[in-house]
Design goal:
By secondary structure, the protein is α+β, with helices and mostly antiparallel strands. 36% of the residues lie in helices and 26% in strands.
Length: 256
């Protein structure tokens, strides 16, 4: 069995008898979202709120899965739980300037795996945030697009291809008391399908195509702001105009 703890929350987990693999695996609570049952296995998420000795509450997301396997060079026949990849990606990303849920506990046992992360308190999925703030100014929309682009760029700078990059996987938090250009903090989630690659310069385009496809209702000006911020350019040269057209055409292909 593989098991990894992060010491910050170990006393809190012990206080609530959730410090060991078996205790977390047997946790009984409402599902945050209905379990995904496919490929002969299942995967589900619970939201857990635990109070420390001072009465301060801390939120966590408990992800459990069984028989959701993928073949790897380490386990070419039986495979290993897909959460192993997400755990390794989160460990890798923690060395870079990319906000993600903080790891609290990871464990795997045969075809079972557990991933416990700290909740992103105050953050909202970018697609939900945009729906609930449809009346914000154009200028504030542009600030958000630049923040999202910066987060995706930093993710790719860490050589991580997300491979499922939708707005619902980018969480935003609006900060108070800062200059407008810095009001949004962005965090990325859901790295179960992601991979670390030496070929990110080319494979990142697949992420951008997916994101473009999944944001069809965004204004063209907002998409252009995102594009220019991501590539750190002020104006569209012929090369970047061609790249814009390519991303757009590829996203149209995905809709068919």
């Amino acid at each position: 069995m593989q098991s990894t703890h992060w010491p910050q929350y170990q006393p809190l987990l012990q206080q609530h008898q959730l410090a060991r693999f078996e205790q977390l695996w047997n946790y009984q609570g409402d599902w945050f979202e209905p379990p995904n049952r496919e490929r002969g296995g299942w995967s589900g998420v619970n939201y857990i709120e635990l109070a420390d000795e001072a009465g301060v509450k801390h939120g966590f997301y408990l992800k459990r899965q069984q028989a959701h396997m993928r073949r790897t060079w380490r386990h070419p026949i039986a495979g290993e739980p897909t959460f192993v990849r997400e755990f390794e990606i989160l460990q890798h990303i923690s060395k870079y300037n990319v906000a993600t849920p903080k790891l609290v506990f990871f464990g795997s046992q045969q075809d079972k795996a557990i991933l416990l992360t700290e909740a992103l308190t105050g953050f909202v999925a970018a697609d939900e945030w945009l729906k609930s703030h449809a009346d914000i100014s154009i200028n504030k929309q542009r600030v958000l697009m630049r923040a999202l682009a910066g987060a995706v760029h930093n993710l790719h700078q860490a050589r991580v291809q997300h491979r499922s990059l939708y707005l619902k996987h980018l969480f935003v938090k609006e900060k108070k008391g800062v200059v407008q250009e810095d009001i949004f903090e962005v965090a990325a989630i859901d790295f179960e399908k992601s991979r670390i690659t030496a070929f990110i310069r080319w494979l990142r385009l697949a992420d951008l195509i997916t994101l473009h496809y999944r944001t069809a209702d965004l204004r063209a000006g907002n998409k252009l702001t995102f594009f220019k911020q991501y590539f750190a350019i002020q104006h569209l040269t012929p090369f970047y105009k061609a790249l814009c057209r390519y991303l757009h055409q590829q996203s149209l292909q995905k809709r068919r």
